[in-house]
């Protein structure tokens, strides 16, 4: 037996039931546990159903009545109804940011109960071809069948539905909440990986709570925003040959002082080494002082089905990271070892619906000269220029857990930029009276108010 | 409400004719692409542009090159949707409705938002970089 390379973080499991949970609906205890729940019996890929295919062979399928009778036109009108708008915006944004997840996770992210598997809105979104549905299976596991619905943006049809119907019905602030500054991309695959990432994001947003019940995270971004191009924007790293702006981490947690913690979920030593090399090269040219991001390699291997060496999955991933650190040490004051960490899913979540105390401070392992030492990422002091842009700008986007979305600093950001000029704004606000002889007395004083739908974050207060 | 009937006089007839002519001229200018719809709306806020307020919004939109009834209605439906109004007859909306002084420009804002290009215009490096300096109009507003 080979000697263990990595010190074990002492397990101190707490049941999630006993912990505060910030998610108002579908908290972590109510959801399926995607790691310890034994839900990936058939492999890490799920069979997906697209409405176009399904409804083409309805004569062979027996459908629940409420699904079979839904026409495409009815579905579209449900989707574009003004009561669905807030949930629709949040659903599109969350699915764009995290690709695919269980329906339960979608409900938790958006807080909208109309997005449950029995909900009208999800059914309508499926019928028009905006989303695909999948299901985790187990011959006898009724619980898994009932709770194991998966959802993703349809890679084939969602873009045209967005372009032709949905986009037109939204205001600029709402489009920005969905897209940010990037185009619509629907790439669905890596089912197990993405479901685990979404679960990690939700658990971090739900249970990293301080003494007065406030979240210790200031913001949370999905994969869409954890890209090399955005994290290293404006640094020398973007000009180095071999730089690919589209390489992405899986989820980005932002601490209240602005530290950006990228989590890269990974399963094999080869993959870890390749990814770690790219990150290390990026870090060398994007100094920590101005680009305060660190990367955690989280090993989440299914020990029953996954292939690992006898050292265990964490040791494999750590080996890849260690090799990278030996090749790319960084510079003084910008050492790569202080920015690349490893952790294991079992360190943080040792059992079904259990959380380790180590997760409360995000304890990870840092490479020292010849060993690994534990570091608490939520407590560790890092030396960088404080910067709250990542926190302020998160308010524009709807693609994270809805309770974590910060209040907009400038709700009228889009509305104020609509006026062609200063003079035009004043002219439109106070047009000349049509009958000046009748306009007597004091001029009417009404505070100029932006229409609600033009304001940033307007969908937050309309959960359905 | 009682409505007073004003007798026709040659001066009134001439004024009505001038107003009709003005509206016609502006619509032609829009169709020739010599002025934009926003120019028309701005003109209508001035005392001398008051006759333009009787124009139907749909008429103004349809005057543009490449616009038809369907696209104009679609556009107005978006404006009304943004304002969250119900049971509005979009064919009867006029420039006067859009510029109503009581609304303090909110209807115009919804109109301008509907006219925005579909691509979201934030800034490069969003969301991890600060926004670019505010344009001059914002400073005046603050």
Structure, briefly:
The complex is a heterodimer of chains A (464) and B (142). Chain A contains 18 helices and 15 strands. Chain A has 464 residues and is an alpha+beta fold.
Characterization of the model:
The complex is a heterodimer of chains A (464) and B (142). With 464 residues, chain A is an alpha+beta fold. In chain A, 32% of the residues lie in helices and 14% in strands. Chain A contains 18 helices and 15 strands. In chain A, the strands form 5 sheets. Chain A has a 5-stranded mixed β-sheet with strand order 6-7-8-9-12, with helices on both faces. The longest helix of chain A has 17 residues, at 191-207. Chain A is globular and about 90 Å long. Chain B is an all-alpha fold and 142 residues long. In chain B, 50% of the residues lie in helices and 0% in strands. Chain B has helices at 10-31, 37-45, 57-62, 69-82, 95-99, 106-114, 136-141. In chain B, helix 4 (69-82) packs across helix 6 (106-114). The chains are: A alpha+beta (464), B mainly alpha (142). At the A-B interface, helix 9, helix 17 and helix 18 of A face helix 2, helix 4, helix 6 and helix 7 of B.
Strands of chain B, total number = 0
| Helix share, percent of chain B | 40-55%
SSE arrangement of chain B, N to C: HHHHHHH
Strand order of the largest sheet of chain A: 6-7-8-9-12
Beta-strand residue percentage of chain A: 5-15%
What's the alpha carbon Rg of chain B, rounded to whole Å? 19 Å
Number of helices of chain B: 7
pLDDT average of chain B, as an integer? 89
C-alpha end-to-end distance of chain B: 42 Å
The major sheet of chain A is characterized as: 5 strands, mixed
Structural class given helices, strands, pairing of chain A? alpha+beta
Oligomer description: heterodimer
State the low-pLDDT regions of chain A, or none: none
**Intertermini distance of chain A:** 56 Å
> How many DSSP H or I helices of chain A?
18
Biggest interface goes to: A-B, 55 and 46 residues
- The residue ranges of chain B in which pLDDT falls below 50 over 5 or more consecutive positions are 136-142
Largest sheet of chain B: none
Shape of chain B: elongated
Radius of gyration of chain A: 24 Å
């Amino acid at each position: 037996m080979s000697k263990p390379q990595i010190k074990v973080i002492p397990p101190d499991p707490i049941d999630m039931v006993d912990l505060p949970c910030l998610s108002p609906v579908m908290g972590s205890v109510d959801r399926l546990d995607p790691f310890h729940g034994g839900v990936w019996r058939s492999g890490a890929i799920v069979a997906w159903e697209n409405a176009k295919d399904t409804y083409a062979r309805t004569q062979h399928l027996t459908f629940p009545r409420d699904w079979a009778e839904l026409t495409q036109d009815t579905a579209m009108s449900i989707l574009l109804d003004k009561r669905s708008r807030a949930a629709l915006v949040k659903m599109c944004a969350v699915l764009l940011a995290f690709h695919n997840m269980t329906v339960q996770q979608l409900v938790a992210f958006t807080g909208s109960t109309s997005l449950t598997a029995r909900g009208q809105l999800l059914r309508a979104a499926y019928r028009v071809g905006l989303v695909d549905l999948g299901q985790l299976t187990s011959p006898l596991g009724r619980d898994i069948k009932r709770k194991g619905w998966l959802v993703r943006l349809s890679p084939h049809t969602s873009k045209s539905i967005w372009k032709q119907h949905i986009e037109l019905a939204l205001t600029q602030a709402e489009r920005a909440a969905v897209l940010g500054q990037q185009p619509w991309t629907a790439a669905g695959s890596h089912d197990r990986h993405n479901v685990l990432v979404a679960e990690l994001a939700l658990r971090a947003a739900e249970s990293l709570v301080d003494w007065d019940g406030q979240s210790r995270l200031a913001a949370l971004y999905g994969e869409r925003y954890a890209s090399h191009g955005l994290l290293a924007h404006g640094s020398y790293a973007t000009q180095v040959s071999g730089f690919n702006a589209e390489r992405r981490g899986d989820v980005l947690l932002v601490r209240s002082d602005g530290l950006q913690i990228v989590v890269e979920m990974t399963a094999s030593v080869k993959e870890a080494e390749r990814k770690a090399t790219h990150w290390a090269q990026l870090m060398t040219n994007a100094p920590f002082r101005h680009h305060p991001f660190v990367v955690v390699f989280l090993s989440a291997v299914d020990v029953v089905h996954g292939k690992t060496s006898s050292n265990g999955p964490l040791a494999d991933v750590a080996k890849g990271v260690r090799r990278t650190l030996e090749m790319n040490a960084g510079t003084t004051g910008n050492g790569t070892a202080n920015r690349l960490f490893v952790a294991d899913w079992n360190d943080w979540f040792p059992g079904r619906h259990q959380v380790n105390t180590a997760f409360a401070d995000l304890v990870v392992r840092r490479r020292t000269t010849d060993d690994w030492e534990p570091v608490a990422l939520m407590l560790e002091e890092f030396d960088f220029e404080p910067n709250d842009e990542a926190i302020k700008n998160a308010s524009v986007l709807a693609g994270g857990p809805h309770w974590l979305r910060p209040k907009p600093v400038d709700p009228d950001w889009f509305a104020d930029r609509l006026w062609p000029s200063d003079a035009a704004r004043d002219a439109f606000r106070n047009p000349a009276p049509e009958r000046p002889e009748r306009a007597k007395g004091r001029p009417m004083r009404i505070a100029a108010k932006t229409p609600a739908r033009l304001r940033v974050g307007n969908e937050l207060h309309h959960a359905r | 409400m009682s409505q007073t009937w004003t007798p026709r006089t040659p001066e009134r007839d001439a004024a009505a004719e001038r107003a009709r002519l003005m509206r016609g001229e502006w619509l032609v200018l829009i169709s020739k692409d010599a002025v934009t719809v926003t120019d028309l709306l701005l003109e209508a806020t001035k005392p001398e542009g008051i006759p333009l307020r009787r124009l139907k919004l749909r008429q103004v939109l349809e005057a543009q090159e490449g616009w038809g009834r369907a696209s104009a209605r679609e556009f107005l439906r978006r404006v009304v949707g943004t304002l969250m109004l119900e049971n509005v007859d979009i064919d009867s909306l006029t420039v006067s409705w859009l510029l109503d002084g009581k609304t303090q420009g909110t209807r115009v804002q919804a109109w301008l938002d509907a006219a925005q290009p579909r691509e979201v215009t934030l800034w490069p490096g969003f969301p991890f970089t600060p926004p670019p300096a505010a344009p001059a109009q914002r400073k005046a507003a603050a």
